[in-house]
Amino acid sequence: MASEGIRALFYDGHSSRARPVRLAFTSSSTDAALTIDDGTQPHTLPLRELRLGERVGGTPRLVTLPDGASLEIQDNDAFDAWLRAAAVRTPEQAVRWLESRWQYALFATALTVLVSIALLRWGLPALTTRAVRFVPPSVDALIARDSLRALDLTTFGPSQLSQDERQHLTALFAEVAHDAQPPGLQFRIEFRKGNRVGANAFALPSGVVVLTDELVGFARNDDELRGVFAHEVGHLRNRHAMRMLMQGSGSALLLVGVFGDVSAASSLTAVAPTLLVSQGYSRDFEREADAFAFTWLAAHGIGPEHLSALLRRLPGAGSGGYLESHPDLEERVEAAHQAAAPPTPGPK
Question: pLDDT tens for residues 39-56?
């Protein structure tokens, strides 16, 4: 059968000059062919020798000829109608069929959102927990050095603690860290004045714990400080800092993959990891660190309630400050009480 002419632009592959042509199709039980008519000498080619480009929205479809020339289709609908009549299937046909039905598009959007949330909440933590085992400690050391340098330039000030106070606190920290250090890695403590961050303690990669003067000022005894040190050592032992960095990077890559364009998603990927990962995942990390601290304190005959007592006195306890990304204060206090309570005797 023959069809009416379809408008197209012909490019010879040697110059950018376009020449208007008319296309006609013929099909039979054995083959289909395309005839290109530029008003002078019609030229017929078997359809199997042509490469049909995908149709994207309303943009003209591109058809590539065997000699490198190409056709820019001006009437996509008429071209598609002939392809359907000739029972010719193109790679994007199934996708266009789905896109034309809003129910499927809505379902695909909802599924993408749910899968992305599941990956951010459960998939990435599980993957990074395993992947971090393959990251050498030298990477942690590099990150810790640069992070502490940046904090010293922007946030911290020199510690005002005396030399005797530092030596005493270093001895307490070494007592807590002694059995928790993995082979070949030495945990250490750094002292800084917190300035605007106030009373706080930070566990950086590569076994570095930063303790602020302000937090020391809130502690009433060594057992409270041991509780803080045990909590931070729990972070170090579980490599929470490196896992957090890996999860943040993974969430950014996931969001870029969903949006499909780095430039369009750049602003969102800068914010979303903090909102979706930091607030959620860091709470899980804090619970792990608390569990380590309560276990260590109980094993050394120190009541876990010492840590909860210090937490209650910190500025902004329960909202913001030191506890901003931590679990609810009452949840942590209850966990400390449960850790301190003697086990319930079982039936005799």
Answer: 888 888 888 888 888 777
Question: For the chain, which residues make up each domain, given as ranges?
Answer: 6-99, 118-340
Nearest partner of 80 among 38, 42, 36, 23, judged by Cα: 23
- Give the contacts of 34 (CB within 8 A, at least 6 positions apart): 23, 24, 25, 44, 45, 47, 50, 63
- The counts of H helices and E strands in the chain are 13, 11
Residue 194: DSSP 8-state? -
pLDDT over 90 at 345, yes or no: no
* Alpha carbon 120 to its chain's center: 7
Q: Which fold has domain 6-99?
A: PH-domain like (2.30.29)
Which residues lie across from 64 on neighbouring strands?
Answer: 51, 70
The Cα 111–Cα 109 span in angstroms is 5
Q: Note whether 314 and 217 are within 8 A (CB).
A: no
